[in-house]
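Task 17 of the worksheet. Students: predict the tertiary structure of the chain below and write it out as structure tokens. Keep your answer in the requested format; marks are given for formatting as well as content.
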Amino acid sequence: MDVMDAIRKRYSCRSYESREVPADVLDELLEAARLAPSARNFQDWRFVVVTEPKIRENLCRQALRQDFVRQAPVIIVACSSNPYVMRCGQRIGPIDVAIAMEHIVLAAVAKGLGACWLGAFKPYKVRQVLGIPSHIEIVDLLALGWPAQAGQSPDRLPTHRIACRNRWTF
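Model answer:
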């Protein structure tokens, strides 16, 4: 599958089979993250890969009891500790982590896996559950596994509604 096929096929998977994701597949997904670009090449992403059922259950409680979090055989907790602010005023940590996480998602889709980003969670509780130090920012969680049913990518706006050339013409 080429990258555009993976992009077109990707959707937020919220229903997973119970079968495990093999360690070698997880290693390949983490390799995809490792190869992601980062501002000033800081590479300040850190990932906690959770496969232990009791810990996943606890994370489900900290993710506002979204049941698919419990169901997913893998939860990846993405973190950063980089306080660097770019000249444009934006912090690079969350941006770099998001780029690396999307590398994971697209690599997962190419392997037949489903994934769903999670923005609804209690960071301070996730920190406690996983023993993440206080100076580390928990940016996002990702549910990952084999889809229990076929999903469909959501409708997207046409390109002319999201992009213009040379000057703002929206």
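Marker's comment: The CA atoms of residues 82 and 93 lie 5 Å apart. The chain has one domain: 3-150.
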